[in-house]
Design brief:
By secondary structure, this protein is of the alpha/beta class. It has 2 domains: 4-168, HUPs (Rossmann fold, 3-Layer(aba) Sandwich), CATH 3.40.50.620; 199-312, TPP-binding domain (Rossmann fold, 3-Layer(aba) Sandwich). It has 9 helices and 17 strands. The chain has helices at residues 17-29, 44-51, 72-82, 95-108, 214-223, 231-235, 266-269, 289-292, 301-312; strands at residues 4-7, 10-11, 14-15, 34-40, 58-63, 88-92, 112-116, 118-119, 124-129, 134-139, 146-150, 165-168, 199-203, 226-229, 256-260, 277-282, 295-298. Helix 5 (214-223) runs parallel beside helix 9 (301-312). The chain is globular and about 60 Å long. The structure holds flavin-adenine dinucleotide (FAD). The site of flavin-adenine dinucleotide has 28 residues, from helix 6, helix 7, strand 16 and helix 9.
């Protein structure tokens, strides 16, 4: 029987929603045996959140000062040790998981299954290729642990109401001395995290300048949304790189996505095709973004946005 270990993603003592999405994927494989491991300096609060996810059997906690920051090279040897009792080890396809899980796979000497979007069998999975334009079915080798990143845009968060047992465990793994935490330079301020936000407002080249991007931030704040951007806006220096949405940026699946001054190039659409409702604001009625938008507003963004803001009160 499959037994799945999920590595919890967390920050500032809060569990990231990506973990509950991994639980849903794991339940498609093995409804009865899904454990979560929380590696942290003080895992108590995060473990309590993880234990409340419906369908989780056990939450393992590894308390260690070295785990105060999510450094893949420090976490990976511990996860690889814990993997011994499991058939599958899952992490989210967020920046955290994309950094960590390949290190875990390398330490276990197995290939990684990336961006798992559906479970077809114990070792058979579907994942996107060619920027999401084709779906491939892959099979992990028999007789080895399956290490996978779960495509967060493809899975809904598992519900709450669970009451899994929380167990502190010690891990006898040698941690590297070559990689240490030095500092964290985080952007984004108080705005929601782009990869887990329920609402996202993105600006494109049509916004015109870094100064003009203030109109996007203001509108996003009015909606309580995270802010994203097209690659053209990032390349033009209107906003930082970590805001890029799309094939070479972040793949997101918010409930609401508002694309402003974005033409709708295939590489951008790849990043948003799992979004719930897509709203597009563009002055060109023939812009490709209108082909996938649920709601389209043809107009000049500098006129439309103040009107929308006023309407939102
Ligand atoms: C390998 C590769 C990877 C890529 N990865 C990504 C990626 O991850 N993400 C990504 O976004 N792109 C990516 N691209 C780039 C992509 O092909 C497009 O060039 C880019 O998405 C265009 O950004 P844009 O829509 O902001 O700009 P444009 O295509 O220039 O569109 C600007 C839009 O703004 C509208 N507009 C202008 N002024 C106004 C106004 N006042 N009011 C309303 N609308 C206005 C215009 O009508 C136009 O539709 C990639 C390209 C390649 C080759």
């Amino acid at each position: 029987m499959a037994k799945v270990l999920i590595v919890a993603e967390h920050q500032d003592g809060r569990l990231n929603g990506s973990t509950a999405k991994c639980v849903t994927a794991a339940q498609a494989l093995s409804p009865e045996a899904v454990d979560i491991v929380v590696l942290a300096a003080d895992p108590a609060a995060v473990a309590a959140e993880a234990a409340a996810i419906a369908g989780v059997s056990r939450v393992l906690t590894v308390a260690n000062e070295a785990n105060a920051h999510a450094i893949a090279q420090v976490l990976a040897p511990q996860v690889a040790k814990l993997a011994e009792g499991y058939t599958h080890v899952f992490g989210p396809s967020s920046t955290f998981g994309k950094d960590l899980m390949p290190c875990v796979a390398a330490l276990l000497g197995v290939p990684q299954v990336s961006d798992l979007m559906s479970v077809e069998g114990e070792r058979t999975f579907k994942r996107p290729i060619y920027a999401g334009n084709a779906i491939i079915t892959v099979e992990a080798p028999a007789g080895q642990a399956v290490v996978a990143t779960v495509r967060t845009a493809s899975w809904k968060e598992a519900g709450t109401g669970g009451s899994a047992a929380i167990e502190a465990v010690g891990v006898d793994a040698s941690l590297p001395s070559h990689t240490r935490f030095v500092g964290l330079a985080a952007g984004g301020g108080d705005r929601p995290d782009l990869q887990s936000a329920k609402r996202v407002v993105s600006g494109g080249r049509g916004v015109g300048s870094a100064e003009n991007f203030d109109i996007i931030y203001r509108f996003a704040d009015r909606l309580g949304a995270a802010v994203g951007a097209s690659r053209a806006a990032v390349d033009a220096g209107y906003c930082p790189n970590e805001m890029q949405v799309g094939q070479t940026g972040k793949i997101i699946a918010p409930e609401l996505y508002v694309a402003i001054g974005i033409s709708g190039a295939i590489q951008h659409l790849t990043g948003i095709k799992d979004a719930g409702t897509i709203v597009a604001i563009n002055k060109d009625p023939d812009a490709a973004i209108f082909e996938i938008a649920d709601i389209g507003l043809v107009g000049d963004l500098f006129q439309v946005l103040p009107e929308l803001e006023a309407a939102l009160g």
